[in-house]
Amino acid sequence: MADDKSLTPRSEDFASWYNEVVLKAELADYSPVRGSMVIRPWGYGIWENMQQALDRMFKETGHENAYFPLLIPMSFIQKEKDHIEGFAPELAVVTEAGGKVLEEPLVIRPTSETIIYHMYAKWVQSYRDLPILMNQWANVMRWELRTRLFLRTAEFLWQEGHTAHATADEAEAETLGILQIYRTFMEDWICMPPITGLKTESEKFAGAVRSYACEALMQDNKALQAGTSHFLGQNFSKQFDLKFQSEEGREEYAYNTSWGVSTRLIGGMVMTHGDDDGLIVPPRLAPTQVVIVPITRGDDTRSAVLEKVDEVAGRLRAAGVRVKVDGRDHLSPGAKFYEWERKGVPYRLEIGPKDLEKGSVALARRVRPEGAKRKEFVPEEEAIETLPARLEAFQDELRETARARREENTVRGVGSIGELAEAFEAGAGFVYTGWNGDPAVEEQVKEATKATSRVIPSEEFRSPRVPERCVSGDGPAAMEVVWARAY
Amino acid sequence: MADDKSLTPRSEDFASWYNEVVLKAELADYSPVRGSMVIRPWGYGIWENMQQALDRMFKETGHENAYFPLLIPMSFIQKEKDHIEGFAPELAVVTEAGGKVLEEPLVIRPTSETIIYHMYAKWVQSYRDLPILMNQWANVMRWELRTRLFLRTAEFLWQEGHTAHATADEAEAETLGILQIYRTFMEDWICMPPITGLKTESEKFAGAVRSYACEALMQDNKALQAGTSHFLGQNFSKQFDLKFQSEEGREEYAYNTSWGVSTRLIGGMVMTHGDDDGLIVPPRLAPTQVVIVPITRGDDTRSAVLEKVDEVAGRLRAAGVRVKVDGRDHLSPGAKFYEWERKGVPYRLEIGPKDLEKGSVALARRVRPEGAKRKEFVPEEEAIETLPARLEAFQDELRETARARREENTVRGVGSIGELAEAFEAGAGFVYTGWNGDPAVEEQVKEATKATSRVIPSEEFRSPRVPERCVSGDGPAAMEVVWARAY
């Protein structure tokens, strides 16, 4: 770790830079429990803003929230063959409770398909009881060997949607509808425009028929799987006896979907926007969008400055801006500037005795166009009136910068595994190639490049001319696939 | 359980009535995991409204949300002597994770003082780092032997606030400030006016110096401990080395408080307001405040009715009312009325062909003054304009009814344990007596009456003339105390 004041530059060691930003911006801290972290108020405030935005999108599309038990009987997890294979190595198990050894061990949910579809089976009799469109905000536990703050922790917070439908078509439409919601959310709120598509068989969720994902490209050109939406078919409904009587009077199994995003998104936000000075938080997610630092040099002007600061803060709040006044006496203005920059607050506003005289304020933007001055002196009225629009412009700029970076680091037209390896050695992000659909090719690519298949891209992300040959050289391409080294 | 259509009357069997209401109003359901329940969307929607209101009150008083780990090392729980004594019998223990037996068992948090103060100790160096005012919304686990939906479940949802202060006075003020927030919230939002006060030594939180509580009186005249606020002194800071350098340069231990309310409040709401037809939800908490049932008798008027219903729903929503249109085709209006009454929606609005002709709507209120007609026919405009105020009036009425019931069922001036037993046999709720402060008297009272001390009442709840003698007959009263049979 670099000295206390500065961060390891991204170009030197991206992983160290990431950890330092998370810790020094006070997003999170290590806890005494292996693999579990503490989400501190600045990080949790960002998560609350993410939750509110997503929750609104879910509710607008007819979903309701509910809450299912943390503990799941071991026998439930074992019912779906692929599901237990996928999750068995990561389970945390409660074997004792209330002073006694339990007859059947209970696992802390790694995900809740099993217990939720067991309950749905109790509630559903007829097609009239369908669809069920539920979501829960919850903690889950996956005992990972190698953990990283936000990106891979034993316990994490997420939402998991679980739906049941009368037809496969309806369930598939739900799966894709949610994928679009995730994409829109990541673009509009996190300014982290992902590509979307279908996971290959070897990368899909344990128990799914088809998994779709949003994959975002980080500044180190590694991909982050940022959200997944699964079409589960009847895999779980058959195991949990989730049946209904159809309109025609037949007994049928329901079709399920499940989908989730987690606090991992905060890690994605850090790695999409942060710079060598620290975090940069998109305004829509920032718990504080504008910090006001009073510059109180002498006792004679102090109260006038503080009064003006409160007035400006009040007017900005009335305009819907989230404002914090940093009135701490024991810190110099410089120390405050430094702290709020590190935390990624989009705008800083300074008001001092000279500003009072001139009726102006100093505005500092967390990211500036190259060559722009550190501070802009703006008449007070203008600052108050323009700040909401400045915040939106900042949001748009972050999004477009991230989108341009993703495109600049995307490589198409690669024809062989050798070229693929060269592309990654040269620092490529997403690489598009043809693929014959054979999982053995995924193995070859992984060995040669450390990259994995991220998605078979959705139509809007497909290359204008889809490659004709498989990257392995073995026959024609059945589809296009996107490769990347990934978190 | 009564037949599918009706509920066991409260007068016949209050406990059965309660369970039936919770299940039939679809607030919650039993789960396959012993002692854990599923909170269904109607119940969770009420919880979300409670959360939003409380969260706002916490934030307005300077508290921030954070998130701490679910799992706590066993050694942490054991550090505070009273704490482990209180919680040991109820712990759920993770002994295996990731396919291996853990070196040190981890407990699922029954409450988070230990891990939170461990973290505060990392973050606090100087008095300038204090106070820390944090809250978390989380699930906790207490392995209870006898469970009741919402009232006592192995897993429950709650908020737990944890603060650290430089002085005892400041911590005590925080403890009492939160007690007031809880009281205000219970009165204004749940319409469940509690009494407040100090817990006796034998009833206080395991690890607290002093515990304060809100105690509400249910319709069966049993008390429900609905929220607690604890002054922890330095009990935890000394165990977790939560020290700071004071302004004078001395090293001192911080003073802590902790406080919480849980999904138990939903049980309190049910038992405060429900009637023999089902649930009654205070309008401010109701996920749906007004349900609109279209009466579509013939195809010729159907589309006109539905159009009017959408128009009225839209106008009510614009006025800030939470409206649901129940457009289900396979249910008769009567079946819908029955369902929404059982779920406790405050107002129902019916619109049919005749209403269209007359420009009126039918309004049905979930609770009516005695002798009032089931429905009121009101001009459409008037209905839309007056519904927000009607909802507020309904809220006020529920609160005043509950307050009056609490007062009617409160007995003062009881002078002996024999009289105390008679009062409870005669159905008393809260009984106020003098008490010499001896825990042996609490034991005697419990044996004779099954009642426990609920609180030493706060000043505003004390009797105008505090009794001079202890109810045991043994000497003068050191204080007044409130007894009740309790959940």
Assembly classification: homodimer
Strands in their spatial order, largest beta sheet of chain A: 3-7-8-14-11-10-9-22-23-21-20
The major β-sheet of chain A equals: 11 strands, mixed
Please bin the fraction of helical residues of chain A: 25-40%
First-last Cα distance of chain A:
21 Å
In angstroms, what is the radius of gyration of chain A? 25 Å
Look at the structure and give the mean pLDDT of chain A: 96
What structural class is derived from the secondary structure elements of chain A? alpha+beta
Q: How many domains make up the 3D coordinates of chain A? A: 3
Low-confidence stretches of chain A: none
Number of continuous helical runs of chain A: 14
Q: Write down the CATH topology of the largest domain in chain A.
A: BirA Bifunctional Protein, domain 2
The two chains with the largest interface, and their residue counts, are:
A-B, 58 and 58 residues
Could you name the key traits of this structure?
homodimer; 487 residues; alpha+beta; BirA Bifunctional Protein, domain 2; Rossmann fold; Translation Initiation Factor IF3; 3 domains; 11-stranded mixed β-sheet; 5-stranded mixed β-sheet; 23 strands; 26% strand
Q: How does this model look, in words?
A:
The structure is a homodimer of 487-residue chains. Chain A has 487 residues and is an alpha+beta fold. Chain A has 14 helices and 23 strands. Chain A is 36% helix and 26% strand. The longest helix of chain A is centred in the last third of the chain and has 29 residues. The mean pLDDT of chain A is 96. The interface between A and B is large, with 58 and 58 residues.
